[in-house]
Amino acid sequence: MNKNNTVIYLILILILGILLRLWNIDKPEGMWNDEYLTWSIANLKFPTDFFKGVANNCHAPLHYFYLKGWMFLFKDSDVSLRVSSLVPGVISIFTMYLCAKEYLVKKHGELCSLAAAFFTAISGFLIYFSQEVRIYSLTFLLTSVVLFYSLKVFNNPSNKNVWLLTLFSVLLIFEHTIGFVFVLFNSCALIAFMQRKKKENNITNNIIAGIVLCLPLVPFLYGLFAHPRYFSQWWAPFSWSKLLFYFTDLFSPVLKNISNAPPSFLQQIFDNGSLNVGFIIFALVPACICLGLIIKAFQNGRRVNLYLLTVFAATFLTVLIAALFGKIVFLTKYLIELYPVLILLIAVGWSTMELKGFKIVLATAFSVLTLFYIVVSYTSPVRLVRNEGQRLVVTALKGMNIKSSDRVLYLYYPPSRFEKYTKEDNLFFYAHSIDKYNFPYILYPGKSDTYEAFKNGKALYRDVFLSDTNTKMSNFLKDNYYSKMQKGDKLFIVELKEVSFFNDKWLNNVVSDDSVYQKVPFLYLVSSYAKNYSLKESKAYLDYKGHYKTGSWIIYMFEKV
Q: Coil, strand, or helix at residue 179?
């Protein structure tokens, strides 16, 4: 392929990637909780509050420094914050081009490079995270750079290549909490499968240097895994279906395992007894094409394939085992470090196919299905609504003519999660919450802290869930709301319906059946109980005025008469 043509094609691919990531980047629902938490930590006063906030979070620190610097230069509007993820997302298109070029340096090299860049540009998974204020877009970029220098070291273990690999491996560990798993297996596999004659002593020395540079993270990682602040699977238990959703998320524009996958993969294929044609065409077909190309890539018998396969298998199985033991939720994004490896293998498998006609058919089918879904579907990555977006609540409350003397009770999130959208109007002065951090101090009659509740909640709270009275919670509501409200004042109770969907009768049935009770995530039980009791008490003391639904939220309105 002519080099001038390659440059033109690459520029066109980059433009396509930019346009897809810019489309609908200003989300009307605002940031959802994880995004909001990321912004709030980066927004803390530097250096004291900022370092404290970073240290108390469960994620590695680098991204907060990156976002802090970005906000200093470009402020913190929602669009600006999302562009902070778009930039590394676009750069990743070029780094994946380089990865593929390094893998196939001779025959098919340019075609393979363009294929890797194009797949990265139109990946629904990467487009989604290029518009989200989270760590994953930058994580993918750093991982692709680590892969690039790993391939360079594999081919030419010079001092420069090894030191650059060490540098970016350290940055990846500081960017993503479980990035060390990928870096560990990547380093071991690289040493194991490189040609012996190409090895140099400085590789081992650089690995030691990298370990030394990562020592500051050891106390953080120890505290996170040995003494977890919360148990992630209290809200999303493991299911084997998530393994299948992992591949459809990565290889198709249909995203199902972003925050919590549906309970059954089979139910996505058979919808109410009939075939779900849309899921089959837009999720299964692209995924099968990509899996077939990955298999094809391994047919060339190159030693580098053993290295890539080892990195993938070891990292994947480690995270899978951690999920099985309840240490982490098995979500597609938590294994984003493996995505560059898979994209590279897809590009290799496609570009090395000898049947030119079949190659064109596969590329056309995959591209058309992916781009058609992104452009047309209302659940495409660029249109996928973050139903937990905090701006939805604030907009709704403003539309309900809330006054500065009215009161708000947030369920599940603390009031601080909404302040970015409320501070401009000087509203919501009287706001409290029964949230996922303070509920033990409000719901549990005796002494209970958050860690104990997360760890042993089902045993501790069973009697609470079955009781019709809760003096501690009743006093909380009276002291903060009913006793302080004047005639005409309103109380708005804000519920996140996706975590509090059990009514009183349903909750009682679940708690009474031990087999069902043990399977239901503790989060749903706590949130449902807090909602039910708050509504019941409020209806006894105040006049109920109805409710309003927006996204994943329900806002109940009461008035003192």
A: helix
CA distances from 278 to 125, 268, 284, 369, 541 (A): 18, 10, 9, 11, 49
Q: Virtual CA dihedral for 410, 414, 417, 421, nearest 10 degrees?
A: 50
The answer to whether 517 and 397 have CB atoms below 8 angstroms apart is no
Average pLDDT on 477-497 reads 95
Q: Name every residue whose Cβ is closer than 8 Å to that of residue 363 and which is 6 or more positions away in sequence.
A: 115, 350
Average pLDDT over residues 421-434: 75
Residue 495 and residue 549: Cα distance in Å, rounded? 10
**CA 546 to mean position of chain CA atoms:** 34
CA angle 18, 20, 26 (to 5 degrees): 95
Cα(555)–Cα(495) distance, integer angstroms: 6
Percentage of the chain beyond pLDDT 70 is 91
- Report the alpha-carbon distance of residue 232 to residue 326 in Å, rounded: 8
Query: How many separate helices (H) and strands (E) can be counted in the chain?
Result: 27, 7
Chain Cα centroid distance, residue 115 = 26
Which among 45, 49, 47, 70 is positioned nearest to 133, based on CA atoms? Answer: 70
Query: Angle of helix 62-74 relative to helix 78-103, nearest 10 degrees?
Result: 120
Helices (H), 419-513: 419-422, 439-443, 450-466, 471-480, 504-512
- Identify the helix (H) or strand (E) that includes residue 342: helix 339-351
Query: What secondary structure, in 3-state letters, does 512-534 show?
Result: HCHHHHHHCCHHHHHHHHHHHHH
Residue 304 pLDDT > 70: yes
pLDDT given for residue 195 in this prediction: 65
Q: Which residue has the tokens 């433009």?
A: 15
DSSP for residue 427:
-
Q: Give the distance from CA 335 to its chain's centroid.
A: 10
Partnered with residue 546 across adjacent β-strands are 557
Q: Is 162 helix (H, G, I), strand (E, B) or coil?
A: helix
Strand 490-496 to strand 407-412: parallel, antiparallel, or no bridges (unpaired)? Answer: parallel
Q: What is the pLDDT of residue 424?
A: 59
Average the pLDDT over each of 36-50, 215-229, 427-441, 471-485 and give the range with the smallest value.
215-229
Q: Which amino acid is at 259?
A: S
**29 in Cβ contact with 389 (< 8 Å):** yes
pLDDT at 425 over 80: no
pLDDT band at 271 (very low <50, low <70, confident <90, very high): confident
CB neighbour class for 43 (10 Å; exposed up to 12, middle 13-18, buried from 19): middle
**What is the spatial distance between Cα 341 and Cα 455, in angstroms, rounded to a whole number?**
36
Which residues make Cβ contacts (< 8 Å) with residue 382, sequence separation at least 6?
A: 20, 23, 24, 127, 128, 131, 374
Q: What is the pLDDT of residue 402?
A: 87
